[in-house]
Each structure stands twice: as structure tokens, then as C-alpha cells.
Amino acid sequence: MPANLIDAALAAYARAIRILDPIRFQVWAERGITMPQVRVLFMLAESGDQSAGDIADTLGVAASTVTGITDRLVRQGLIERREDTADRRVVRLTLTADGRRLTTEVGEVSRTYLREVFALLSDEQLEVLVRSFENLADANARVASKTVAV
Fold first, then answer.
1. Are 55 and 43 in contact (CB under 8 A)?
2. Domain span holding position 90
3. At CB < 8 A and 24+ separation, what contacts does 78-83 make?
4. Which of 12, 25, 71, 86 has its CA at a distance of 20 to 30 angstroms from the CA of residue 51?
5. How far is the C-alpha of 98 from the C-alpha of 105, rounded, in Å?
6. CATH number, position 44
7. pTM score of the predicted model
8. Is residue 148 part of a domain?
9. Using CA atoms, how far apart are residues 125 and 61, in angstroms rounded to an integer?
10. Which among 81, 7, 10, 76 has a CA at the least distance from the CA of 44?
């Protein structure tokens, strides 16, 4: 695959991702939430309860970094710590009702905006977009499985 085509794909991906950034940043800024905090919130929203170690591994950061992030989220009332029922030495992190409301709100705002954007595309363009997103997700899964296996 030609490098210039990969570079073009990278540039197009970056432009597409930036579509939602102003919308998401506005919602987060209104709540005083940083990007690392957002990543933790959405990880918990998507995967359910996690230990700090699990979050650190997934994000590729030190456990102490996760502790700082989660301390602030606990103070903001967006997550809470719970004892792991299987292993009392492990502390599980979980979204509070406010944390769930916030992640739901950001998701709804993003989906509403994207529906407007997608409505401007033809059926054929949307079909290509769907296939492209599916191909991207499949390729990502293949790369991720190789990374985990190493």
C-alpha cells in the first residue's frame, strides 16, 4: 500500500475525528473534566467496573496516574470506589448515576450532531462510510490482537 495513501487516510481520519471535538470539549469543559478523566469515564461506561490496574494497563499509563485521575473523579461524584467481592485487596471503580448521566449526555450530543452531518450524505456515501468504519474496526482488532499477543 502506498505511503501517500496511508498519509491521506491519516489526514482524513484526523479531520473526521475533529468534527466532534468542539462538541465534546464544550460538554466536558462545562463540568471541568479533563481528557484523561473522560477516557476513564467512557472506559467505565463501556466496560463496566474496573480496577485501577486494569485502567492503567488499558490506557498504557502508570497506576499512580490513574489514582490521580480517579481521585478527582471521585471528588466530582462521577465515579466511586468499591471493594471487589472476590478479592478484598482489589478496589473496583464504577460510574455513579451522575457519571452515567454525563457519559450518556455526551453520547447523545455527539449522535445528534452526527445525524445532521450524515443526513447530508447520499445513501451510497453512507454505505461506503459504514463499510469503511467496519473495515477500520476489523483492522484495529487485528492489530490490537497482535499487540496483546506479543
1. yes
2. 3-119
3. 78/33, 78/37, 78/41, 78/102, 79/40, 79/41, 79/44, 82/49
4. 25
5. 10
6. 1.10.10.10
7. 0.72
8. no
9. 38
10. 81
The answer to whether the CB of 132 falls within 8 A of the CB of 78 is no
C-alpha cell at position 116 = 445532521
Read off the pLDDT of residues 37-49 as tens digits, 9 standing for 90 and up.
988 999 999 999 9
Phi, psi (degrees; rounded to nearest 5) at 93:
-110, 135
Q: How many domains are contained in the chain? A: 1
d(CA 132, CA 9): 11
- Residue (of 91, 69, 96, 71) closest to 81 by Cα position: 91
Task: Determine, yes or no, domain membership for 46.
Answer: yes
Write the pLDDT tens digit of every residue in 12-57.
Answer: 888 888 877 777 778 788 878 888 898 899 999 999 999 999 999 9
